[in-house]
Amino acid sequence: MLSEKITKVLNKQIQAELYASNLYLAMSAYADAQNLPGFARWMRLQSEEERGHALRIFDYLGDREARIEIGEVKQPPAKFGSPLEMFEAALEHERKVTSDINQAYELASHEHDHATMVHLQWFISEQVEEERTASEITARLRMAGTDLPSLLLIDQELADRQAA
Ligand code: FEO
Questions:
Q1: Quick one: which of 124, 126, 130 has its CA closest to 99?
Q2: What is the pTM of this model?
Q3: For residue 122, how many other CB atoms are within 10 A of its CB?
């Protein structure tokens, strides 16, 4: 049986992943409005991935017969300034998620909750990937600066992202 503290932290993580899903969907809408279909596609797929993360925790709580609460999800911003600022915001967000996951893992470890530790290990590895990708794209957007052809090239590359 999951402890009350672990149950709370995992429900909070569902909320955070659903917020992430909405944040990326808002970024997709922003990119679409800027006529950047590759960015829009990438963000939309990322939004779906985040929903998948929320469901992964949802299913785990269900498997452990723990309480599931779908908390209020705050509204994400609608404007992101530029593609670079948008990816900077995405990277900052992923770093925050990494910190949340690490804290949840530390709690599970403190409580000797081995099953939750194993469950969270998947998220720890996933965060390495998520941060690396956001960081790489951010760096390339910084290199592109205000050069429009470079931005359009990045847009084309992001359009190639396939659903997980
Ligand atoms: Fe679910 Fe991007 O962290």
A1: 124
A2: 0.95
A3: 13
